[in-house]
Structures are given as structure tokens and as C-alpha cells.
Specification:
Strand content: 15-25%
Distance between the termini: 47 Å
CATH class of the largest domain: Alpha Beta
Structural class: alpha/beta
Bound molecules: adenosine-5'-triphosphate, magnesium ion
Radius of gyration: 23 Å
Length: about 325
């Protein structure tokens, strides 16, 4: 079987900090696989770990634990120079900010990856002008990044990511700082690349337009995927169509609405467990009203004692 374009498993990432809040666990054992030519959207609240995930998947940051295989090779074990070469040949990034080199014009920023790849100057220039034209920024080609508007800078960054015709684009809110018309033209360009040239995308987004474009969407919360949503999914209308993801560490997280529908936190017993099937049943509706350890009353939907942290029976 052909290897996935991207396969990561058991990813953990901890940002170490001396500050009072201590270390931050940004990724908690998540796994993901992406086929060649597949478009996947990742969404979730601020701080969920989306940017951290993209950086570790693209080999820009080494995860604290876990393996990332990109284009069939383990990027967590590569020597730095080999990693740079492998990244350039496989993947392009579009970040939330800090995409452009400040001392280079928009045109030279876009041209830079082609120069690294050894494309002759004349050919590079033709390709750069074509893509700047397409993204409606040809008239800003000679401006420095600080002279560009947020939307123009974002389009320049997108042009730079696309110019090398990568197999995979990792994008962090690519339409976040542009107007709806520009957002639409960016998404049209992504769609064309996706459909006609089989470019794969992993896009972090809050935008409906982007998640419509994706083949599937993954919902990230608190450093792990909690749900997957298939084709033609409206972001508001997730409950009927969602799949839940069971992590490699055995953790299954329910979204608040699913938890409420199930009847809230409490004790469940395994009624039926076979290969690929699990049925749970609530043990009893009578839940402890007071903590067995310290006798503090529980909140209505509390799972743990607010005072001593004991788990509610
Ligand atoms: N360099 C860092 N040092 C310490 N903690 C960090 C660092 N970068 C991110 N974090 C923390 O890690 C967690 C995940 O951050 P991340 O940037 O991946 O979130 P995100 O989902 O991209 O959020 P947003 O939607 O706001 O961009 C957050 O709690 C954040 O505060
Ligand atoms: Mg982010």
C-alpha cells in the first residue's frame, strides 16, 4: 500500500515555562493521516493547539513525543539540513503572521523559494508575475512588506506558498485577514490546485468557506481531536453527522452538546464491547449529591468535587 502523504501518531507537545502558570501541554497524543491530494480543515477554539499542530506536522518544530512522517519520511529524526531540503520539496506554509521577509519586496519574497530550488531567473520571474497577477497584487510587486496592507501581505504569502507547486500546503487561517472577495478568490485558487493538480491541504480555519472546500473537517479541543465531520457539513449543524475520534491513549472526548444529550457526566457501564463496537449504559440515575471524601455538595453537573477534587460517583 502506498504510504500516506502525511501521517502523525501519538503527538504530544509541551511548551516548557518558568512562569507561574508552568508548562503548557498544547498537544495531547493526537494522530492524523492525510492522503495525497486530500483537503482537510481543522477547527477549534483559540488555544486548542491548532498552530502548534501545523508547526509540528510541517517539521518546523519537534514535538515533545510522537512521530511525524511527511512524504514517507520521519521528520522528527532528520538532521537539520536534510529536514530543510525535505520540507522545501514537499510542503509550503501559510502562517497567521510573520510570513514575509521584511527586507525583500513582495515580488522577491514570492521568488525566493524558486531561487532556492534553482529555477532560472527568467522562468522564475514569469511564474511570479503570473501568480501576483492572479492574486490581484501585481501593482504592489515592488512594495516592501511594511508597505502592504494586511490583506496584500497575506496574498503575497499565499503566492509564495503556491509558487513551488508543493504536494501539501499547511495553512493557518489563510483567509483570516482578507476581505470576503479576496477570500473567495483565494479559495477558488485552492480549489483549482486541489482538483486539477491534486495538491493536498491542511487548513486551520474558522471560516465556513474553507471548511466547505475541505473533504473532511477535524475538530480540535484542548490538544486532541474530538470529532471528525464528513462531506457537505455545515459548521452549525454538526451534531447529526459527526464521528468521534478515539485517541491512541484510549481517551474519548464528548463535545458539551453530545454530553448533555447523553444525560451528562456520571458512571457508565460497558454493555456491549466487540471489535469496532462499544455500547455504554448509565449505571444509575442516582448520583451522589455530596462528595464521599469531604461531604461538600456537588454542582448539578459537576464531575469532580470542587473542594477536594474527588471524582463523583
Ligand atoms: N511559544 C509558546 N510558549 C508557551 N506556550 C505557548 C507557546 N505557543 C503556544 N502556547 C500555548 O499553547 C497552547 C496552544 O497554542 P496554539 O497557538 O497552538 O493555539 P491555537 O489553537 O493556534 O490558537 P489560536 O486560534 O488563538 O491561534 C495555548 O495554550 C498557548 O497559550
Ligand atoms: Mg493559532
Amino acid at each position: 500500500m502506498a504510504e500516506n502523504l502525511l501521517r502523525a501518531s501519538g503527538l504530544y507537545h509541551v511548551y516548557e515555562s518558568q512562569a507561574e502558570e508552568g508548562n503548557v501541554v498544547a498537544l495531547r497524543g493526537l494522530s492524523i493521516a492525510l492522503q495525497d491530494g486530500e483537503a482537510v480543515a481543522v477547527f477549534g477554539p483559540s488555544g486548542a493547539g491548532k498552530s502548534t499542530l501545523l508547526k509540528t506536522l510541517g517539521g518546523l518544530m519537534k514535538p515533545s513525543a510522537g512521530v511525524v512522517r511527511l512524504g514517507g519520511e520521519d521528520v522528527t529524526r532528520m538532521a537539520p539540513e536534510q529536514l530543510v531540503r525535505h520540507r522545501r520539496a514537499t510542503v509550503s506554509f501559510i502562517f497567521q503572521e510573520g510570513n514575509l521577509l521584511p527586507h525583500l519586496s513582495a515580488r522577491d519574497n514570492v521568488m525566493q523559494p524558486l531561487r532556492h530550488a534553482g529555477v532560472p531567473y527568467r522562468e522564475a520571474l514569469v511564474r511570479v508575475e503570473e501568480i501576483l497577477e492572479y492574486l490581484g497584487i501585481a501593482d504592489r510587486a515592488h512594495a516592501l512588506p511594511e508597505q502592504l496592507s494586511g490583506g496584500e501581505a497575506q496574498r503575497t504569502a499565499i503566492a509564495r506558498a503556491l509558487i513551488t507547486r508543493p504536494r501539501l500546503i499547511l495553512a493557518d487561517e489563510p483567509t483570516g485577514s482578507v476581505d470576503p472577495v479576496t477570500a473567495r478568490s483565494i479559495m477558488d485558487l485552492f480549489s483549482r490546485l486541489h482538483k486539477e493538480q491534486d495538491v493536498a491541504f491542511l487548513i486551520v480555519t474558522h471560516s465556513e468557506m474553507v471548511s466547505d472546500f475541505a473533504d473532511r473537517s477535524l475538530e480540535l479541543q484542548d490538544g486532541r481531536f474530538i470529532a471528525q465531520h464528513g462531506d457537505d457539513i455545515e459548521l452549525e449543524d454538526l451534531a447529526q453527522t459527526r464521528e468521534l475520534l478515539l485517541g491512541g491513549d484510549g481517551q474519548l472526548t464528548l463535545t458539551p452538546d453530545l454530553l448533555a444529550e447523553l444525560g451528562g457526566a456520571g458512571r457508565y457501564e460497558v454493555r456491549d464491547l466487540r471489535r469496532h463496537r462499544l455500547t455504554l449504559s448509565r449505571v444509575s440515575d442516582e448520583r451522589d449529591t455530596h462528595c464521599a471524601a469531604c461531604n461538600t455538595p456537588f454542582d448539578d453537573d459537576g464531575v469532580q468535587c470542587a473542594k477536594c477534587g474527588a471524582v463523583r460517583g
